[in-house]
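Assemble and predict.
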Amino acid sequence: MSRDIGMTTTIETPFPAARYRDVVEDRDFPTVRDYARRTGRAAAGCYPVYGPFELVRAAGLLPVGLFGGGNRIEIAHADSRFQSFICSIVKSTMELGFQEKLGPFKALLFESICDPARNLASVMSRNFADQKSVYVHLPQNMTSPAAVDYLASEYRRVLAELCAVTGATVTADDLRANLRSYNAMRAALRDLYAFRGRRPESLLTGELYTLTRLATLMDPDEVTPILRESLAAANEREDRPKDRIRVVLIGAFCEQPPLELVESIEESGCYIVDDDFMLGWRLFRRDVPLDGDPFVALARAYLDDSLHLSTKHDLRVPRAKAIVESARALKADAAICLIAKFCEPGLFDYALYRKAFDENAIPHLYLEFEEKMWLYEKIRTEVETFVESMLFR
Amino acid sequence: MTAAVEIKYQGELHLLQKEIMAKYYAEATAIAEGNGKKAAHLLIAGNPVELLRAFDVLPIYPEVNVLQIAVRKGSLPLILKAEELGYATDNCAYVKADIGLYHAGGVTPFAKIPKPDVLVCNYVGCNVYLNWFEHLAELTHAPAMNIDIPFIRTPDGEPTEADVRYVVKQLEELIVLLENVTGKSLDWTEFTKIVERSAETGRLWAEIKDMTKQRPAPYDAYFDSVTMMAPLYTLRGTEEGLRFFEVAHREMSARVREGRGPLQEERFRIVIEGPPPWPKLRVFRDMFSRWGAVAVASTYSTVGGLWEFGFRHDPKHPLESIAAHMLSYNVCNRNFLQRYEQIERYVDEWSADAVVIHSVKSCRLFSAGQGDMREHFVRDRDVPTLLIESDLEDPRYFSEAQLRNRIDAFFEALEQRRITAGRVAGGVA
């Protein structure tokens, strides 16, 4: 895409995602500070994987993805609180508190995703009293008729806790307005993901990653136009597909790999046609209905209309089966499991995925990462070797 | 250091425990060999075993099976088998040993473990439980149910009314599932009797736990509690289980009257937090015994239920009281700061000198954040606290020399602190 700057020269306009590449990695949260300056509203840090973001925003707080410190924060204090065998995101999230990076947040939202995250919620509340820790217990009995009522009341309780922080009063219509905003944002992300699945040469995963991450750092009404603009820009591209294999990449649904690592994987000879990065922010298959009780609608969306996720144990559809079906639908040649070190949900799932991939003759590669890594040569070589073994077999 | 030699203790209680556990495992073996009875797999943390017993379904606890294997030094080959199949070194070794055991045909030195007729995943705090039983469902194709127990997360530390309603509803759904699996209807009279026996068992266990407030404590509330915990889980609600606790109560009461403890001399009273290193249990125990250290309380002994602060099953409201047990009255479903409070009560009410945190890699439910726990006890409470690391099932993580050094250094410092305090109290500068 190019733009005429009114003189004799035409320069390349960067793809929208390029403008935000540094912003999304900045642990001073520039988008959140900017939003607070403009609106006077504070934010809530939302620890992965999924939370009811609509409720947070309805209570008057901007929901912000809190994905630890990445490779931008050196852990100096938190490793005395959490042991060496605990995943990095738990420690680096606590370190954000020790390094006074949590200033923009009045509340922190945690969910029942794994044992370390659960204990982190308690430890954060003991150490950082300025940020109210709110814990959401998401149901794990997806087949019980009682689960919808339970989750709807859990959401009412969570909203009340958040409103106690802000003093807000929330009506059903306020909630519906928030459902509408997040529906629009998720729809834009769904469209971007679908486009990338069809034309990965025109929307690289590094770009899609940046946009998705941006969606966790901005107000949905402000980010959705950027997502739409990006889709239009990608659609105008005329790149020809390179000789690469199509892969689905799974396992990094919570702790996030460095963006450079994601780019390295793709540059090593793959087109990533699906992934589960920040999956909680784009979890629903379709819009949450706006009629009826909004708490119930949001609860039903989680229980009956959400994508498969390693922290959601749905006995109706084994995740490995769902992943295989998704890989087939996207005509993927292979799967890459990119799993955070010490991530128990991801590591347990790998054992099931491996078996399913073998049974379905889907070539697969296992990679382990840590958010704080900054050398990618080893992984690059592994992916290149894997790709070569596929291209030249 | 004065060596405190451990008393060889083989009372009626230990013999009875061996006898009834052998009988329990004989029953499991008979089912595995096809006697037609049903078996359910479920988990230790607050569970509805009373309902299984009412349907005459034998409860099988994978955790108990694999810890028994670890004590007999048999866990590593099973763990390695699971790792061959794609399980990570960083996954819970209980799960890996159980998966390895499945692939070994369920054959152990003490029983043949039957395949489940039904999988009852009581998701009580531990998220790994969900993965574990999902994998068992994949392997065995047995009908499975997750009983979702909302975690304690409200500012008042209590479950919400919606939580209780949700759990009771799920217990009703479990009844339907068990009716389908067994082809029987629930006999409410029998069920009520079972709950009554659980209530009485809980009362006796709570009183036994209270006895370690005495000096000397009549038994070690960590290392000897495990003798009583096995029947508490496998036989709770049965007449045999109740009889065991009557014997235990009688025997411990006699020890209190006679002033007998597990060691010749009780020199330090400690609270131990975290599960034991089963593959090296004896070695680990000796590291404390040689210092005359006796555990007067332990959080591990409350994984299956927290009776010492007043909880009892209620035969008048059986489902509601099982729900309360699962939601509130076990250490696993209580939040991490409630565990700090629990340990504080032990330190204060059981008059402990120190806290020992045994951090196990396998169980992040217990261990994640224990550095913060130590920080709290040392900085906020001035309680000497030792944090050591190993594992509950994987012998590769037990570094004997390092553990011994750290434990020795801790008790040396504790002894020095006591001498200094004595001098100050006695006016010697």
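Residues 172-198 of chain A form the longest helix (27 residues).
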